[in-house]
From TrEMBL:
The keyword Signal applies. InterPro entries: DUF6705. Residues 1-22 form the signal peptide. This is DUF6705 domain-containing protein. The lineage of its organism: Bacteria, Pseudomonadati, Bacteroidota, Flavobacteriia, Flavobacteriales. Pfam families: DUF6705 (PF20448). Residues 6-137 form the DUF6705 domain. Keywords: Signal.
């Protein structure tokens, strides 16, 4: 199920020539629950709204921090309801659906050098930086844009049963999209500037 839905959402992102956050632009034709396993193939249907009926996103919301080895990585996770994914291709009927998602912003500092920071930005891109909590799985997954290296990668976020609250943020190593020319990445640097290998992040005030 995870693979099917992820491919669906990624395909929409790649081929959409526009997206709109105004949920009233196109009508909701049906609704499904992201928690209901039996509805997993219905979420991407045209006009469908996949809802977070069990408020599972709440456990991920907040600012989270990883600080080790000269790296400070802060992740801000927020809820966004009824995000539209829309495909518009000339000569074809517009297709769309909605989903309740999590949006991601981040700050990255390495060796006291600020590489990127949009934690307090008013803009949000729920197509490039998002996570979706599907059914009763114990993780959310989606995509994040590493702005320093200009590469998008898939990730999972797993909430741990700890006090203080913690998550495991895992930026996957082999599922990514390079946005620059291939020569840009032949500099001997890691593909991502965002930490990988399943980092543990603690919730902060």
């Amino acid at each position: 199920m995870k693979t099917f839905l992820m491919k669906t959402f990624i395909t929409m992102s790649l081929f959409a020539i526009s997206y709109n956050l105004a949920s009233q632009e196109l009508p909701v034709l049906s609704t499904t629950s992201l928690y209901n396993v039996e509805q997993r193939f219905d979420h991407p249907e045209n006009g469908n709204y996949a809802k977070d009926t069990h408020n599972e996103r709440d456990q991920y919301v907040g600012p989270w921090e990883y600080s080790q080895n000269g790296i400070l990585f802060q992740l801000k996770i927020e809820k966004m309801d009824q995000v539209i994914n829309k495909i518009e291709v000339p000569g074809f009927e517009t297709r769309y659906n909605y989903s309740d998602q999590l949006t991601l912003r981040y700050r990255l500092i390495k060796n006291n050098i600020l590489l990127f920071d949009n934690l307090e930005g008013s803009d949000v891109d729920p197509i490039a930086n998002y996570a979706i909590k599907l059914s009763s799985y114990n993780f959310a997954d989606g995509r994040i844009w590493d702005y320093t290296r200009n590469v998008r990668g898939s990730h999972t976020i797993t909430r741990l049963n700890t006090n203080p609250p913690k998550i495991i943020f895992n930026l996957e190593r082999f599922d990514y999209t390079k946005l620059n020319d291939s020569s840009f990445y032949q500099d001997g640097q890691p593909l991502f500037s965002i930490p990988q290998n399943g980092i543990e992040m603690v919730k902060i005030d």
